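ok so for the tutorial part 2 we go from a plain amino acid sequence to predicted structure tokens. step 1 is just haveing the sequence, like this:
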Amino acid sequence: MLSSNQNSELKSVERDRVLAWLENNVPQSRIQHILRVEQMAIELADCHQIDVEKAAKAALMHDLAKYFKPQKLLDMAQAEGLEIDPTSAANPHLLHADVGALVARDTFSIDDAEVLQAIANHTLGQPGMSSLSCIVFLADSLEPERGDTSELAKLRKTSYHNLDQAVWLTCDYSLKLLVETHRLIHPRTVATRNWFLQKVKNSQRVVDKTA
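step 2 — the prediction. this is what the tokens look like for a chain of 211 residues:
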């Protein structure tokens, strides 16, 4: 049985190993983004009473495959039997989250399904995703250097009060940007937005009935 100090040291060694890998595989600017996502994920997890260690771990590893070449992403996804829909085939970069979970599993021996799902869901989301996945999804989208507009400030505030509503509204924000810049929209983002919108509406109906 590890003592708390030994356990903390082990976590520190694991984190250092991930950071060393990132140093060799992503630009420094991306590492800074990753560290900001990690910090926001920790804060959100603490706020919503979600496992902080899991949130930090998933956030630190969310962009492991961010700079993999398109063909490598396609090859790894295909080898794992992941679905490669027409949108992902046209823009393989969209696979980096799902492939990143494979890297976390195979390179860093992460076997916690919830952590792996949080890594896999951080870009496109997933209908019904866990609170941990919501936290990493939101931290990636809303970390401080994403911008300082009033809309982003409102989304950040919402993320600390209501994860479901924040996911829905953040999807709306992302979809609007994608439409304005004439980019492909993955159906999973739309499905995620609809699922969380419906969940919020259903919750509001329950509150109205009991009021």
